[in-house]
Amino acid sequence: MRRTLVLMTAFLILATVIQTQAQAQTQRRPRAQMQRSERWDFTIQTRYNSSMDYTGDGGSSLSVNSDLGWGFGFGYNFNQHFNLGLLFTWRSVPYQSMAVDADDPSQSTQYSGQLSTSTFGLSGEYNVLKGPITPYVNGSLGWMHINTNVVAGWTSGCWWDPWWGTICGPVPLTYGANKTVYTLGLGMRFEVSDAVFLRGGYERGWLSSGTLDGTDMMRIDLGFMF
């Protein structure tokens, strides 16, 4: 939790510095004339996930800690309201799990690890107002790769190491899955200059999985228009 607060504080400080530089170095147009229509957006994104508890088959369970994820996105503003783009996000989250023996449900095993996810998807956003300060609603549809980092076996392989060159040896295989993911959200967009904007809001995400039925997320983005 402490690390997350430090990272969020650093991100907000960076956003403030960039905003100040943009205002000092960019000739701003009057706010009433600021336009995002027919311009591109690039965003550096954060997503904070609250802790979650899930129950699986046979009494098995999964607890995922709260943590901060990162990402970036590209989008095109077709007009003052509608933006369509692509996004890529990733995170690594501590978790605790309990596995139950299928033959003897009284026997269980508890373990913990680091859950890694990466997502690539299509995003859409509708800005309610034409001005530089506007509420928005958004949604996304994408593909998520989930890696539990639980070893499922071993294989052999070779890879390039920056220090030692080519290395060959045993490589662990881990349990994972590929899932369809979609989100819906809402928030506020604030264009601090003709080139820089901030965006913050809430999102709810769903996976094509019977166990991981939903995720609550808070996001703060630093964006650039060009």
Notes on the structure:
The chain has one helix at 2-25; strands spanning 40-49, 52-55, 61-64, 67-77, 82-100, 108-127, 133-161, 165-191, 196-207, 215-225. It has 226 residues and is mainly β. It has one domain (50-225): Beta Barrel (Porin). An eight-stranded antiparallel barrel has the order 1-4-5-6-7-8-9-10. 17% of the residues are buried.
Q: N-to-C SSE series?
A: HEEEEEEEEEE
Strand numbers in spatial order across the main sheet: 1-4-5-6-7-8-9-10
Number of helices: 1
Q: CATH first level: which class?
A: Mainly Beta
Q: Would you report the number of β strands?
A: 10
> What integer value in Å does the Rg equal?
21 Å
Q: Rough shape? A: globular
Low-confidence stretches: none
Judged by helices, strands and strand pairing, the structural class is: mainly beta
Number of domains: 1
Indicate the CATH topology: Porin
* Helicity, as a percent range: 10-25%
Instruction: Give the name of the CATH architecture.
Output: Beta Barrel
Largest sheet: 8 strands, antiparallel, barrel
Give the integer mean of the pLDDT values.
Answer: 85
